[in-house]
Here is the input.
Amino acid sequence: MVIFGYYEVIFQGGDTVKKLMNMTFCKGCKNGTHLPSTSLLRIVVGVILFAHGTQKLFGWFGGFGLEGTAGFMEQVFGGAGMTLAVIVALIETVGGLAFVLGFMTSFAALLVAIEFIIIIIMVHLKNGFFAANNGFEFPLLILAAALTIMHMGAPYYSIDSKYGRKGGPVHKYSCLLGNCTCDGYGQDGKKGK
Here is the structure.
Protein backbone atom coordinates (compact mmCIF):
# COMPACT_ATOMS: atom_id res chain seq x y z
CA MET A 1 0.00 0.00 0.00
CA VAL A 2 2.84 2.39 0.81
CA ILE A 3 4.59 1.71 -2.50
CA PHE A 4 1.31 2.26 -4.34
CA GLY A 5 0.91 5.47 -2.35
CA TYR A 6 4.25 6.80 -3.60
CA TYR A 7 3.22 6.20 -7.21
CA GLU A 8 -0.10 7.87 -6.47
CA VAL A 9 1.78 10.91 -5.16
CA ILE A 10 3.84 11.14 -8.34
CA PHE A 11 0.84 10.99 -10.63
CA GLN A 12 -1.85 12.77 -8.60
CA GLY A 13 -0.03 14.91 -6.02
CA GLY A 14 -2.06 17.29 -3.88
CA ASP A 15 -3.76 16.01 -0.76
CA THR A 16 -2.36 12.51 -1.32
CA VAL A 17 1.08 13.70 -0.16
CA LYS A 18 -0.29 14.67 3.25
CA LYS A 19 -2.19 11.43 3.62
CA LEU A 20 0.89 9.44 2.61
CA MET A 21 3.00 11.33 5.15
CA ASN A 22 0.46 10.44 7.80
CA MET A 23 0.30 6.82 6.68
CA THR A 24 4.07 6.30 6.68
CA PHE A 25 5.40 8.58 9.42
CA CYS A 26 2.57 9.17 11.90
CA LYS A 27 1.17 5.70 12.22
CA GLY A 28 2.22 5.23 15.84
CA CYS A 29 1.07 8.62 17.01
CA LYS A 30 -1.83 7.16 18.98
CA ASN A 31 0.42 6.63 21.99
CA GLY A 32 2.71 9.62 21.46
CA THR A 33 5.27 7.64 19.48
CA HIS A 34 6.58 7.35 15.97
CA LEU A 35 8.21 4.58 13.99
CA PRO A 36 11.11 2.60 15.50
CA SER A 37 13.33 3.83 12.65
CA THR A 38 13.59 7.18 14.44
CA SER A 39 15.91 5.37 16.84
CA LEU A 40 18.41 4.98 14.00
CA LEU A 41 18.72 8.76 13.68
CA ARG A 42 19.09 9.18 17.45
CA ILE A 43 21.73 6.48 17.80
CA VAL A 44 23.82 7.49 14.76
CA VAL A 45 23.83 11.17 15.77
CA GLY A 46 24.69 10.07 19.31
CA VAL A 47 27.72 8.11 18.11
CA ILE A 48 28.89 11.09 16.03
CA LEU A 49 28.49 13.49 18.96
CA PHE A 50 30.20 11.10 21.37
CA ALA A 51 33.18 10.70 19.01
CA HIS A 52 33.57 14.46 18.53
CA GLY A 53 33.08 15.12 22.24
CA THR A 54 35.75 12.62 23.28
CA GLN A 55 38.13 14.18 20.73
CA LYS A 56 37.71 17.45 22.60
CA LEU A 57 37.61 15.97 26.11
CA PHE A 58 40.25 13.22 26.02
CA GLY A 59 42.05 13.65 22.71
CA TRP A 60 40.66 10.33 21.44
CA PHE A 61 40.28 9.57 17.73
CA GLY A 62 43.00 12.04 16.77
CA GLY A 63 41.51 14.96 18.71
CA PHE A 64 43.37 17.77 20.46
CA GLY A 65 42.05 17.15 23.97
CA LEU A 66 41.00 19.88 26.38
CA GLU A 67 44.21 21.92 25.98
CA GLY A 68 43.88 22.17 22.19
CA THR A 69 40.15 22.77 22.34
CA ALA A 70 40.65 25.48 24.99
CA GLY A 71 43.21 27.20 22.75
CA PHE A 72 40.75 27.21 19.87
CA MET A 73 37.96 28.52 22.11
CA GLU A 74 40.16 31.41 23.28
CA GLN A 75 40.88 32.35 19.66
CA VAL A 76 37.19 32.38 18.75
CA PHE A 77 35.53 33.66 21.93
CA GLY A 78 38.31 35.46 23.78
CA GLY A 79 38.80 34.50 27.43
CA ALA A 80 37.44 31.52 29.36
CA GLY A 81 38.72 29.07 26.75
CA MET A 82 39.10 26.17 29.18
CA THR A 83 35.62 26.67 30.65
CA LEU A 84 34.03 26.75 27.19
CA ALA A 85 36.08 23.73 26.09
CA VAL A 86 34.85 21.71 29.06
CA ILE A 87 31.21 22.76 28.47
CA VAL A 88 31.29 21.95 24.75
CA ALA A 89 33.16 18.66 25.27
CA LEU A 90 30.71 17.56 27.97
CA ILE A 91 27.62 18.52 25.94
CA GLU A 92 28.87 16.48 22.99
CA THR A 93 30.20 13.52 24.99
CA VAL A 94 27.40 13.19 27.53
CA GLY A 95 24.76 14.33 25.03
CA GLY A 96 25.96 11.75 22.52
CA LEU A 97 25.85 9.04 25.16
CA ALA A 98 22.36 10.20 26.20
CA PHE A 99 21.22 9.92 22.57
CA VAL A 100 22.64 6.40 22.20
CA LEU A 101 21.06 5.22 25.45
CA GLY A 102 17.88 7.23 24.96
CA PHE A 103 18.19 8.79 28.41
CA MET A 104 16.84 12.32 29.05
CA THR A 105 16.85 12.55 25.29
CA SER A 106 14.84 15.73 24.74
CA PHE A 107 16.87 17.66 27.32
CA ALA A 108 20.16 16.45 25.83
CA ALA A 109 18.90 17.41 22.36
CA LEU A 110 18.03 20.91 23.59
CA LEU A 111 21.58 21.41 24.88
CA VAL A 112 23.07 20.07 21.63
CA ALA A 113 20.80 22.35 19.57
CA ILE A 114 21.82 25.43 21.57
CA GLU A 115 25.50 24.53 21.20
CA PHE A 116 25.22 24.03 17.45
CA ILE A 117 23.32 27.30 16.92
CA ILE A 118 26.23 29.07 18.62
CA ILE A 119 28.79 27.06 16.62
CA ILE A 120 27.10 27.92 13.34
CA ILE A 121 26.91 31.64 14.12
CA MET A 122 30.31 32.10 15.76
CA VAL A 123 32.52 29.71 13.79
CA HIS A 124 31.12 28.38 10.54
CA LEU A 125 28.70 30.93 9.04
CA LYS A 126 31.46 33.22 7.75
CA ASN A 127 32.97 30.30 5.79
CA GLY A 128 29.89 29.66 3.66
CA PHE A 129 27.87 26.49 3.34
CA PHE A 130 30.20 23.63 2.39
CA ALA A 131 32.12 21.59 4.95
CA ALA A 132 35.20 21.50 2.69
CA ASN A 133 35.66 25.21 3.47
CA ASN A 134 34.81 24.76 7.17
CA GLY A 135 31.29 25.99 6.39
CA PHE A 136 28.10 25.35 8.33
CA GLU A 137 26.91 22.27 6.36
CA PHE A 138 27.77 19.64 9.02
CA PRO A 139 26.74 21.72 12.08
CA LEU A 140 23.43 22.52 10.35
CA LEU A 141 22.80 18.82 9.82
CA ILE A 142 23.51 18.08 13.49
CA LEU A 143 21.27 21.01 14.53
CA ALA A 144 18.40 19.71 12.39
CA ALA A 145 18.86 16.21 13.81
CA ALA A 146 18.98 17.54 17.39
CA LEU A 147 15.77 19.53 16.88
CA THR A 148 14.11 16.45 15.39
CA ILE A 149 15.27 14.28 18.29
CA MET A 150 14.15 16.92 20.79
CA HIS A 151 10.71 16.86 19.19
CA MET A 152 10.49 13.05 18.90
CA GLY A 153 12.12 12.01 22.14
CA ALA A 154 13.22 8.38 22.32
CA PRO A 155 10.06 6.31 21.87
CA TYR A 156 11.82 3.02 21.09
CA TYR A 157 14.92 1.14 22.26
CA SER A 158 15.68 3.60 25.04
CA ILE A 159 15.84 4.08 28.77
CA ASP A 160 13.25 6.87 28.40
CA SER A 161 10.70 4.48 26.87
CA LYS A 162 11.34 1.93 29.61
CA TYR A 163 10.17 4.49 32.16
CA GLY A 164 7.19 5.80 30.20
CA ARG A 165 8.73 8.84 28.51
CA LYS A 166 7.75 7.85 24.96
CA GLY A 167 8.07 11.10 23.02
CA GLY A 168 9.45 14.61 23.33
CA PRO A 169 7.33 17.33 24.94
CA VAL A 170 6.36 19.05 21.68
CA HIS A 171 5.49 15.74 20.05
CA LYS A 172 3.32 14.60 22.95
CA TYR A 173 1.35 17.83 22.91
CA SER A 174 0.73 17.72 19.16
CA CYS A 175 -0.38 14.08 19.35
CA LEU A 176 -2.77 14.82 22.18
CA LEU A 177 -4.47 17.22 19.79
CA GLY A 178 -4.75 14.36 17.30
CA ASN A 179 -2.64 16.17 14.73
CA CYS A 180 0.59 14.25 15.03
CA THR A 181 2.33 17.31 13.53
CA CYS A 182 1.77 16.06 9.97
CA ASP A 183 0.30 19.27 8.55
CA GLY A 184 -2.81 18.90 10.68
CA TYR A 185 -3.61 15.33 9.61
CA GLY A 186 -4.40 13.01 12.48
CA GLN A 187 -3.71 9.30 12.85
CA ASP A 188 -6.92 8.54 10.97
CA GLY A 189 -5.73 10.42 7.88
CA LYS A 190 -8.40 13.10 8.30
CA LYS A 191 -7.73 16.79 8.60
CA GLY A 192 -7.69 17.97 12.22
CA LYS A 193 -9.93 20.76 13.48
About this structure: Residues 1-12, 16-33, 181-193 have pLDDT under 50 and may be disordered. The two ends are 27 Å apart (CA to CA). The CA atoms of residues 128 and 145 lie 20 Å apart.
